[in-house]
Batch of 3 targets.
Target 1
Amino acid sequence: MSKLLKKVARSSVTTLIAILCLTACKKTIKPSGEDSTTTPRAVVQPNAFKLWGTCTNPYLGSGGVIVPVGSNSCSPNYVGAQQNNGQNANGFSFYGCFKGGTNAPNGANEASVFLCDNITTWTGKEFGFTKTLNDNALKAYLQSPGNVFIYQTLLLNDNGYHNFKAQVQSGDHSKVDFYIDDVYKLTLQNPGQNYYNNYDYFVGTTHRTDGGWSSTGQQIEMYSINVW
């Protein structure tokens, strides 16, 4: 009997150790890849913007920033909302819309939301979204010094509200990924250029470069702005 009890005891201890190892000794493996960690977000409040315009003014409304396409009262008519203070950044997102049209004479008339590192001459590095107002095409774009522009169309004739996001790749700082409603759309690359962790400003702006056409109702609306 004593031998049997000892055998049962040893068996119970072995079983208990096995159970403890299964429940308490399991190793947690962190997933690999760029999306395995959450990137901290910094919310940019509407009152953190400098608002300016040639003949038309942007304004704050419904908890967001609205930048109309400049009226026909003067041409050119540039309207903008520019973040007062920048930050080292590699991406941004916002909820909003690009309300455009097809009656502008050419694509120099546009509406854009982007991050940029030069708010003096506007000739530095930029990445973001732009809508040309002669064809109502929303495009992803990159800019770099020397008047280098890279574009690719994302949406046509879409004036609706969406979540927009642009993110520089951590593994290749010349590449930027673009998302709409949290769905990956495309990647743009500007070889030899670094868009990662530059000191950037969040900007929304519209450009009327030509007169003689109506832009009534055309505007950018930006809500829930985040930069990281």
Target 2
Amino acid sequence: MRALEALEKIVSDTKILDTTRSANKIKKENRLLHKNEGIDYPDHFSLESVKERLDSYDVSNIPDKQALADVMIMLCILPAEIKDLRISNGSVTGYGKNWGQQDISRVFRSLEKNEERAKQLLIWIQEAISSGQLKDPGKPGVLWFNTFLKKDEFLPKVGKPLLPSSLRKIGAVFAVVAHGAKNLSKAETIASEALRHSPDNHASPAKNYTIVNYRLRGEPYNQATVFELSGEN
């Protein structure tokens, strides 16, 4: 209970930070122009709900699709990265951007700040996939995970159903909140690290960005805070 109260305080405090107020002001015009864009999520996939489940998972049990989705959010993983991602000594390797290239490590950044717990949950999912206890969401052409995310209880009240790729973007915003970014620059750095973007990436935010409509569990959708993730996918 104390952990949950602490989490709720972090979320509450973050909502009133200058970074969110400034971001909303700067992006208000974009929000109006792109009112049909952006990722919305139901309470089931709020930061509070995801963190509660992550804390409660017993890795001696067989993980299910829900655990897979939560770990994908936690580590901002694309489906095809699940089996190859590795966490060690504060770094992450084996992510999609490295395929066919030199495996350059990126800093570990996640809504789960305990690296050992994050690593434990990742290996739990990977071993279940390797043993056939859990299907591989990264196989080309598979639709079962998309279907899972379209269950009635997972549908947001506004916007479109979540996609596997949506979980990655939601996870980046949750990492920003969990790490208590104090300004817009720090928020962008945390999101970029969580998404494992190259520090040499200079893509124009105006040309390549995704909007995530962040809100607390139980908060009305029209009171969501707009987070704009720019740069690489």
Target 3
Amino acid sequence: MGRTVIGRLRLRGADLDPLSAKLRLEGLLSGAHLSPMGLPPAATVCIRRLVDPKPGVLPVRQFAPRPPPAWDEAFRAALGAQLAHAARPAQGPVPPDAGAVLFLDPSELLACLASDVWRGTAAGHWWWKGLFPSADLTLRVVAEWLRRPEYVPAALEAVARRSEARPVLSLFTRDEAHTLLARVCVTQGLPALASALGAFEEEAARAEVMTESRASKEERVSGSDAVPLAPWESWVPEARAPGLGREHQTLLGVALMLRRAPLEARHAAFIPAVVAWRREEARGVTGDRTHESVHVVTGTREAGTSAARASGVRSEQAGSREQVDPSPLPSFERLTDAPAPGAVSRGESAGSATSAPVSGVASPLLSAPIEVTAWPAHTEAPATPSVVMPVPEPMSAPPELSSPPGLLASSAARFAPAPGRGWGLPISTGLGGLFYLVNVGLFLELYGDFSQPAFPCLPLPVWDFVALLGQRLLGEARPSDPVWKVLALLSSRRPGEAPGHAFEPPEDWRVPESWLRAFRTQASSTWTWNVTDGRLRVRHPAGFLMLDLRVPEPTDSTEALVRHELASFATGYTFTLERGDVPASTGHGAMPLERWLGWLVPYVRARLSRALGVDPDDAEALARTLLVHDARLHLTETHVDVVLALAQLPLEVRVAGLDRDIGWIPSAGRHLTFHFE
């Protein structure tokens, strides 16, 4: 499933020709099973030292295509033992005698690398030397984060849990933070936000309104020019802490919004809200959100800057880096529980200055000591991991803040479930074929893949799309299967929230011309139409509605309206219009979501039945062919790996292309990969 890299290999023996032995050993190991059983496909495990489990068994004196089975089995057992005791740097300090370390996915690796570099401990850890030999690790952090921007939101979430978001961001210059933000926006399906911020930067540069605040600069601000709330104010309390520059604050706010409130981050009002906030911030308007005049004293913290440099932060020329206070951020609980500081007088020093409380959430005094949140104690992974995926527990709600106009109202942040939720551990399901439905969404152009990051996706989480469609395609829903809880977790749904609870379906239905190409035939077909209850409906012979539109009462021109609506099908399709009985897809008074599914599901069922060669009226055969497949699911913060049995893969699914590897899904913020054993 992955690749194995051996940093150094030592071979001892008498009367061995070094070159011949090296070539034979390379051939033997290339045919060996070098991946530990049960390791999540997206994981990285570093093993410090591994000895030959059966010395003298490998035939290094003669050519052999693969090792003997006994040696192969013993080697895999040794790998499994190392994996069972592997330390997790993401969960806490690694014991000095640890022989192996494990990162469940690249976001975990990026977060730990950045944290260790800021702390100044990276050079002393043997695994970083193995992963990045002969490299300046401080420069490597920036290079790796810029190279893999799809993992940055999850990595920032990980360092934010340890109250280290601010010091980690201090490793990036202002320009690097700006570039990283643009790349994050593109990979997460928000290129319009990157373009809008780029246009704003150009506009601000021309107008000469973006000026850096100078140390000890004093500015009086009236309440009439109060800065609007940042769009992420309710979900990302870390971004409001003092010491973050605008670029770093925007990067942190956008990235964590994508993790904690993805629906709000992808809402149409989010982009103009971000630009409006940046415009006001660029004007140098600071102060509280009340209508009182306050004095604001800004400055730098030399002690914090010195600490960052001592920890390995690159030195920069003056003006090349925004002032980012590298001291750890206080935890969310500290922010909400801290006493509100008083107003700052003109005579106070920069080190102890603080602004008035922002929207009821107090910022801690800069002079007050801030402790780093203790990491949880290291726990060893079991040799045979297993997990029961729980329904996510409701998280604590953020402070009551007014959302910027146009954004979705939310009374509680969609924070990630608590640590220990079982990311990466295998979950057994009997409905592994449900994940093939993601390819259905891509084929229908409802979502875009990694090659189409700017694709205008359906405003419905792709995992909710899978859940809603799968429940209706299955003849028997199997509510006890853990896959439904997995889909709820991936969609960031809280307990009690149904799939698609925030989705607002359209009131009318039109099948795109591209959807009908699969049903094109040489023979003429009859399309039935009628107007009932003020709605025009056209039914395809395959059993799905092509049109369901609100229209005026029937008149002599109604048939002309029908022909006008079907004009896009005039070329390439041979059909006859006939007026007849066309029942609604759902009963009277159905909810908008049910009505939309009543339009979509019959089409998808007809399309899948045609592609898989099953009777469209046999729901059980369709479910058995496509959906009911035993699988193991490996979940991490950024990966969904579905492991299925190759012997159970129906040829029809392979021919239809429903099992193709999808890779990165921008609108979901995750990789989806199929593996067959």
